[in-house]
Amino acid sequence: MFKKILIANRGEIACRVIRSARAMGIQTVAVYSDADDGAVHMQMADEAVHIGPAVAAESYLVIEKIIDACKKTGAEAVHPGYGFLSENQAFADALDEAGIAFIGPGKKAIASMGDKIASKKLALNAGVNTVPGHIDLIKDADDAVKISKDIGYPVMIKASAGGGGKGMRIAHNDEEAREGFQSAKNEAINSFGDDRIFIEKFVVDPRHIEIQVLADKHGTCLYLGERECSVQRRHQKVIEEAPSPFVDEELRKAMGEQAVALAKEVDYHSAGTVEFIVGSDKSFYFLEMNTRLQVEHPVTELITGIDLVEQMIRVAYGEKLTLTQEDIKLTGWALESRLYAEDPYRGFLPSIGRLSRYKVPKGKNVRVDTGVTEGSEITMFYDPMIAKLVTYGATRDEALEEMGRALDAYEVKGIAHNINFLNAVCHHPRFRAGKLTTGFIAEEYPEGFHGAPLDAETHEKLVAIAVLVHARHSSRSLSDVIEKTSKSWVVGHGKESSTEVSAEDAKAGIDVSIGDRVFAVRSKWKPGKRRIKAKVNGFEMIAQLEFFRGSIRLTHAGAMVELAVRRPEDAALADLMPVKEAADLSKFLLCPMPGMVVAVNVQEGDEVKAGQPLAVVEAMKMENILRAEQDAVVSKVNAGAGDILAVDDVILEFE
After folding, report:
1. How far apart are CA 501 and CA 636, in angstroms?
2. Annotated catalytic sites, by residue?
3. Residue 630 and residue 589 in contact, taking contact as beta carbons nearer than 8 Å
């Protein structure tokens, strides 16, 4: 077996590979950029080598630097993780020339499957069902429009070397095809160093289901069940699960056998994934094959009991698989939620900053794959995913309940994050029913995310919890002199509504009366804790809490409420306080996120129309087009291409 391997990646996937290698008794080498100096993956490894500046194109994507790091440390093999160089044929070739093993597939598989255009042609020639489209290269935007019209809208514009949602756009008309082509091309060159684009028909109401394959160098190739990856935003997966609530044994076998046939066609060896679009009639079409480990691999590991990273290392060393297809059993259910550094309340814009608080949930059926810790810096240079929360249960309902509890318990401060959105999705009736398509998020949140709905019962329980928090917090401020309750309170939730309650001390908690109902709240919570676990009438609840402008902010199940617990006379005075009006920012185009200006499309004096593209800002490897909200005239241009901006920096001013 290898004695030492290098992980050519960063973040949670680097940490994930290190854990398996360590369990196998293999020493590990981490690589790190300036931005990752001191990062968790660097500290976990036995050795760490600096490879350059923060920009990936000058560090993690530089093949020569990775090979030099191997030579310096004596690493015998390289695990590429996913992204970066994981599907780069030139990288695999360079490792081969240097006598360093690549923990991944052979050249034929990388060349034919890593290139989306080549893989489409190969699959078509092999008789695999493929989505209708134009699989030759697209010359320019005019060519993209012509081809899109020939195929018929809507179409999917995709980078040939794409993956992870980068370099992908849906176009419903000529204008979107023209814009989408250029944006996909720009993202592709920045993320993969390859700007080739192809176009295919976009299948309406599809499910995205993928098959995990595992193959050795001795002719054995297996399929390890499927993963449901339909919940996506901007073609990037948000929540995955295994197995799929839609797939039956017959469909699983048909897709699995086709995935194996394709893998064998390209002499595949390692862990890889064949992705399909599946229709409501259970017809399925080949999309692409990812010749590397997938982000969502943990859900497969939990239901099969197979460590995919370990198997990749063993296969790369030349060992035979000890499993047969009959050995593959799917037991239980697993879900994965991707924790992103993004603000769902502001259109999912990227967020950067230092993690001032970071506490992961615990539990025997909870797994957290992460590459950060409290104090880590989230930068603009890399993908916004900072962790994967994975839960397991004997059934889908059990796994979902575990996921809800774990999301409620996950503490993240210092940056904006999507935990509330993930929790809202997991509690959504359509999601819980398993009625999924890749359009789920767009259809269920057409106006964006503004918090999960809160039913009356849950709201009253949170009111009762807020009263307990207020009582204990107040007792501390009164030098531990506990005010005996049996008094009335007014709990305000916004300027327009409030709830009158009365409360009485009880053993290990408080009894709160709301109307003719009594809520028995029992909790060990003490002031200073930022998370409360309580039983309300015997029902266990977990909520994040913070004190905010005189209110208690509670976050539970994706909903956030601010409750001000006051004496009746104080509540009457609070109602008289004026409401501060928001500043008028309609005459400015503000940068909505930290990022780099890719282009400014207008000049001073230009007349612009509502919806017109004004500027493009790139952050965390994604391009964002900023458009005019109304007709206006540009009076001043404050930023240009290449400028690095912070949130709310002024890009344009209008008359």
Report:
1. 55
2. 288
3. no
